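anyone seen this seq b4? input:
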Amino acid sequence: MNGTFHVQGRLIERRGPVVVRDETRRVDADSHDEAFQVAAVLRGDGFTVWVWAVDARSAPAAWDLVERTEPPRRAPATGTARGTQGARRGTTDRSRMGAA
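predicted toks r here
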């Protein structure tokens, strides 16, 4: 491992139960800033991203998770059963939950 940080991104796309895309990208970076720049690009491309700090001086190398982030999720289309459930589940309006 050449860098002090390791960035891994994974993207899985499904159509119903079928996986239509399963892609992994890995990049080694020499600095924290470089690792997070790479992570931002991957996240922008739709990947879930893990950033690891790697200490190669220990044997075996020690990997510490620095951050795990997911890309922004697309909101479901309104009027669908899934979209309606999400709207109800996230509400804090007591009148909509049956409280006075």
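The radius of gyration is 19 Å. Residues 5-92 form one domain. kinda curious what u guys think
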